[in-house]
User: Fold these one by one.
Assistant:
Number 1:
Amino acid sequence: MSKTFAFTKKSVLGLFTAGLLGATVLTSTLVTIPTAPLHAEQAQVFDQHQSLAPLVDKVMPSVVSIEVKFTNAAAVVDNNNGDGALPDQMPPGLKDFFDQFPQFKNRIPQAPQGGGMALGSGFVITSDGYVVTNNHVVERATEVKVAFQNGDKYDATVIGTDPKTDLALLKIKSDKTFPFVSFTKTEAKVGDYVMAVGNPFGLGGTVTAGIVSARGRDIGSGPYDDFIQVDASINKGNSGGPTFNMNGEVVGINTAIFSPSGGSVGIGFAIPASTAQGVIDSLKTNHKVTRGWLGVQIQPVTADLAESMGLVKAKGAIISDLTQGSPALKAGLKTGDTILKVDGTEILDARDLAKNIAHVTPGKTVQLAIIRGGKPMTVDVVLAAMPTDPTAPAAKVDVQKTGSLSSFGLEVTKADDGAGVKITKVDPKSSAADQGLKQGDVILEVAGTEVNDPTAASQALKSVSGKKVLMLVRSADGQRYVALPTGNG
């Protein structure tokens, strides 16, 4: 699709959704290419001077261009204007190209009166016509068509979408049998050669190649970010297109680029096959994605937090809040518990925990290895289905009594709801300010002790003997733990 946007306000400036199509030079002495059918065990070996054309011939029939119609042109971020002109975000060089070759420009769908059109890419995964693409390609669509390289075009139905991973599943409205490709069962590795196919700028099927540059990228697009980074080009219209390994298996779905200008700079991102497979299977079966839900607010364990909690390494995810009625609360988990493993799988950070829990079927029991008060223990939790809007209970009202935590550069008063002490002043040169504490934040715990007034907060500090004191703080963004230096030792 020709949709371009920054994923979140906090994401890297210049992350634009598009699809993947690279233009790098292969330099390997040996790569592999499949013979029919597309199975790794039947792949043959060839050198760098041989063509990728046989691989293209095998996979290209399964890749489609997606044309989407909207009733409201305002809902389309990158629609073309009524006279078929290209989007304003088009890089100048490409505008010049289309000015010289108007026959290509005219192939881009025009926006009808009162409506809009957009383009994307996709690929067929079953012989009966199920098609994978990006959610942002088809969201708000009123009409979807898929076009094959041979010119065949069909109407398609949106079976289901998953905005959290930016995936969508379509079904071609036809009883015909279609060529298809499969997801790889082997994770792509950094340095692997990949080939991408897509529909950049409405030009139709285009093929390029590159390598996997990195794994596990978090670009701020959602809670389950785990992107493959590739050096192949991504441009508008390529969103939802496949990235193949040299065996003709799909290793990723092209989704985004890093770009200051809107054009490719060789940093592209694809949703890995391991993520896509489960989501697509769920969409096909249930028309929606159901994820496991623990019901906690979590944060990473930083070096400062690890020191204040007596942990050897800064790893795992610390629980900073629990949702009322959640599986975590029912299982006896508490704020301050640090989750280190889920069913024996080590948890590296908060994002890792979110992904692991989400992949578990609701209703299943998982065993969490945690640290509580410096002591290891295990807790069994029966996960629930993730609710549409998991919220924490609202607070009540009360008032005041002032005091000081001057050693941290803080002035505090009793919180309005009687739970915790509210910060009324922060010394801008203090360690508290360095940790992002600000006026209006509420300190709920000091060194593991709940505090309801300034006196209780001061008393809790007397039990601290280490170099750091752990505080649970509630702000407008939620709850989190901070570790402030005590000046001891």
Number 2:
Amino acid sequence: MNRDRENILKIKNGQAISLSEISVLEYREFYAMVLKLMDAEDVHCVNYYAYPDNNNLKFICFLADDRTQSVYLLSHILLAGKVPGKLESLTSRVNALHIFEREIWENFGVEFEGHPWLKPVRFSHNRYHRIIAINDYPFYKIKGEELHEVGVGPIHAGVIEPGHFRFTCNGEMVLHLEIQLGWQHRGVERLFLEKPKLLQMTILAESIAGDTTIGHTLAFAQVMEGLAGISANSRLDAERAVALELERIAVHTGDISALCTDVAYQLGAAVFGALRTPIINFTQSWCGNRFGKGLIRAGGSHYSLTDVLVQQLRKLLDDFEWRFKEMADKAYSLLSVENRFDNIGTVTNKQARLIGAVGMAARASGVKRDIRHSHPFAAFRDISYVPVMLERGDVYARYFLRRREIEESISYIRRVLDREQCFFSEATPPVPETSLNLLPSSITVSMVEGWRGEICHSAVTDEQGKIIHYKIKDPSMHNWKAVELSLRGLEISDFPINNKSYDLSYCGHDL
């Protein structure tokens, strides 16, 4: 923990600090400081939220500096007599903050004056404005005799979670798309406060987004370890990195299969779909669950990556790699596939920066945003990872980025397995903690680069060390806006392909 010359508190990923260390700024000073820090391209907002503090409303803002591997922690407060109150909106100056201010407005009624689209995010049951119903969502309107609207969802003709997509079209061309989520808000963050046992909270973390079990549970485990003042040994860090990259390989492979399906390339769909299976089957051999439930635990692990499993994994990766390459060489050189993906759903580098895009959506548009590199955790602290970068920002870029990331993940896992100090016969991870004594009156932030992108968990404790606020951010929260922007000027029939190229999470957003 340290402060720069302007007295801004800086912490590292996973570090816990006392609430008393945080300088509570006047809002004008907070406003100016956020603008100054975010003027740098390498600084972005990880999370900005509010929580009740006695009768006051305390605001916490985490800004990640990718150059220094530090996280700036800023705060301001609304006193009881001024809650919910009004604040000048930062969104008009920094577009990427729109979603955070909207969520604070929805939860606590704070009016952000000058916000260009202050509207609900999730429709939680305990939202401040109960009178606002989900069926009254204020969609953006365009008037014109030649224009028409097309509504899709929230109930879809397939195995998909609820979400409504409102297209404003001129003939077949989409002029504007607005996505309305919040149909199944589960109150996950509130449940973290109601579950007293560590195991209950861990199982809850595993269920935040079913396709990102490893990513979200690792973020949770790092929160608890930071607040408990414990750290993982090198073996446990290595196993966690391997599990995270296996999750990335499995989901990316499945998504490549789905994209092939969307352009009727059945050979690619079948082969890539089949290639995903041995990856998740290995995870099941490792911990008893194909998606990794039970594998990540605070302080230790019940399922060590034994020498036998390491040899099985090496053989699996060797077999997977040549099969994947053979099919990828065909799929990625097929003109009918390439032509269908080229110049579809483009998000420019400028747009990606403006909306605060993260993960694949950012890297496919030339924005170097990858927590494994910029704010390393687990084995990524000792064994560096170089992000895969592309520039075009279209469906083909997101399609091709998956191939490159699969190849890099295989290479990275091998480098971890070759690290003798992590994997030798006598080394085992510690037994997981069953209960933890958390630091009182403290806060921490934990970031993990899941397969979609930047996952962020944050927790605040009271004087007794009990968690009084838990905050989760899935990368989808940033990137749904990219889906909206990238469909403009395309035919409405391009939507399924464009949407699948992001493969964002409904449940990760509708916490």
